[in-house]
Amino acid sequence: MVSGLRAPGFQPDTRLESGEAAVKDEPETEPAARNSDETFYCEAEASVAVEKEKPGGESSETDLEIEDTEKLFTTGQRELYLEACKLVGVVPVSYFIRNMEESYMNLNHHGLGPSGTKAIAIALVSNTSVVTLELADNCIMEEGTLSLVQMLQENYYLQDLNISNNDLGLKGASTISEFLQRNTSSLLNLQLSGNNFKDESAELFCQAFSANYRIKTLDLSHNEFSDKGGEHLGQMLALNIGLQSLDLSWNQFHTRGAVALCNGLRANVTLQKLDLSMNGFGNEGATALGEVLRLNNSLVYIDVSSNDISNEGVIKISKGLEFNESLKVLKNVLVSEQFVKILDGVCAIHPQLDVTYKAVQGFSAKKELLLWTNPMKLIQSYADQHQITVIDFFKSLNPNGKMMMSVGDFRKAMIQQDKVPMNLYQVRELIKKLAEKTGMVNFSFLKTEKR
Fold first, then answer.
1. What is the per-residue pLDDT for 362?
2. Which residue among 123, 221, 312, 436 is the one 20 to 30 A from 331 at the CA level?
3. pLDDT higher than 60, residue 39
4. pLDDT band for position 450 (50/70/90)?
5. Residue 67 in this model has a pLDDT that exceeds 80
6. Residue 401: pLDDT band by 50, 70, 90 thresholds?
7. Which is nearest to 269 in space by CA: 292, 240, 304, 302?
8. Would you say 385 and 425 are in contact if contact means Cβ atoms under 8 Å apart?
9. Is this model's pTM higher than 0.85 or not?
10. What confidence score (pLDDT) does residue 341 get?
11. Do β-strands 40-43 and 2-5 pair in parallel, antiparallel, or remain unpaired?
């Protein structure tokens, strides 16, 4: 099995053949001069045993020594990594060596730099264990990015890659774009947050994701995309047929960019989760989003909080929700009393919808107090008046009378029941109290005594 990693400027002095130990005992010779465009090939064969005798006078093991014959493939990879570190002139990362057999590899904030990233990439070419690779904040730069994409063309096991906060800029975006257009890797999730990407990079990503159908989750948050970038990314959304989750929060999209993104969403049929928070959509952007919600049948989650959207905008969004059958979560921050009233009517039609908001504009203090009343106190009051237990009330919501319900069924039942009227905020707080991590609501722990 031969695995190649192209790395311009990387000039090794040895070639590792299957069956040959990666770390040699004899002194290394000076490498001969080679052309910078040459290809560096590291070969490793999983089925070949690499046996090493331990010196007689050595009684203690280090974390670099492997004597278990069942781990010979990993031993070859470790030796390969150590040899790669020698060749590029970096100190090996002990955490990487210790965890080469794990599926999750967290190398965030390790100060790898371009050369350290090359050594990691060389070792991962033939690795079949690591599925998730975290490389945020490592100053990997363009050279390190190139090493990673070359590795990804050979490694068909790695699915999640985080290279956020590496200041990749336009050159890094170009390398990533060219790679993504090939659709040759097993990569599914890509995090590129905080990489100083501007509108020129957005154009490159438009080219990449208009053709790429493999990536399912993309994080482009905390960059510097403005309205022009929004136009490019809107075009990408109209053409992409793979993305299911997109994070564009903390950018600089305003009215023109917002409208362009929404125009792209009109044609998109695969995107399910979209984070647009911390931008500047304004009411015109909210109006465009409301129109999209009338037509789109794939989005289930949208976050538009902190976008300078006033009453006018949120009303436009709520009008769009009346025609939407797929959305389950909408996050906003400041809404109006009129929005809440409209939303109650929408949720009566679509009880699966969960709208998150923290404040209601235009409400009096008395109305605010009523709105946020503890839902358990309301239920307890109802139970006391009707001489039943709280648990009896919850069991009445479940057709089979059991103590557990799915979160979706529970939300629907609470919204549709008329015994204890509640707003969406109160229902959400109730779910937080009763829901388990399994996605089920469990009220079996509640007190059963009558009051």
1. 53
2. 436
3. no
4. very low
5. no
6. confident
7. 240
8. no
9. no
10. 67
11. antiparallel
Q: Given this model, what pLDDT does residue 89 score?
A: 97
State both tokens at 146: 């190139």
Helices (H), 153-185: 169-180
CA distance 276 to 331: 10
Tokens of 288: 């465009």
Closest C-alpha among 190, 179, 181, 176 to residue 154: 179
Q: Are 225 and 197 in contact (CB under 8 A)?
A: yes
Contacts of 450 (CB under 8 A, 6+ apart): 387, 388, 389
Question: Residue type for 320, please?
Answer: G
Choose the weakest-confidence range: 61-65, 356-360, 404-408: 61-65
Does an H or E element contain 360, and which? strand 359-361
Rg (CA), the chain: 28
**To 10 degrees, what angle do helices 311-321 and 282-295 make?**
0
Mean pLDDT of 180-209: 97
Interatomic CA distance for residues 7 and 38, integer angstroms: 8
The half-sphere exposure of 275 on its side-chain side, counting CA atoms within 13 A, is 15
Distance from C-alpha of 251 to C-alpha of 446, rounded to nearest angstrom:
45
In the chain, DSSP finds a helix count (H) and a strand count (E) of 16, 16
**345 and 315 Cβ atoms separated by less than 8 Å:** no
Mean pLDDT taken over the chain: 80
Angle between the N-to-C axes of helices 169-180 and 199-211, in degrees from 0 to 180, rounded to the nearest 10: 10
CA distance 451 to 344: 32
What tokens does 169 get?
Answer: 């800029």
